[in-house]
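Dear colleagues,

As part of the handover before I leave the project, I'm documenting each prediction I ran so the next person doesn't have to rerun anything. This entry is a single chain, and its sequence is reproduced below.
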Amino acid sequence: MKLYDSIRAPNPRRVRIFLAEKGIEVPRVMVDLASFEHRSDEFTKLNPFRRTPTLELDDGTVITESVAISRYFEEI
């Protein structure tokens, strides 16, 4: 499981705060928005909307949007 995150954007911050409050640690992959890393072919294959946060599960499932990611962690 990997959380694609970016420091500057507000929506990934929501997920970071949620995870911190729940005491959940998830490996993070930092995405540099300033260098347009979120527009790379590799990231676009993962998330066609080219936005962070993006959560990639071990089975290859991808969850986007901060609320959906938070709900996923609330359920597990």
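Strands lie at 2-5, 28-30, 54-56, 62-64. The longest helix spans residues 10-22.

All the best with the project,
I.
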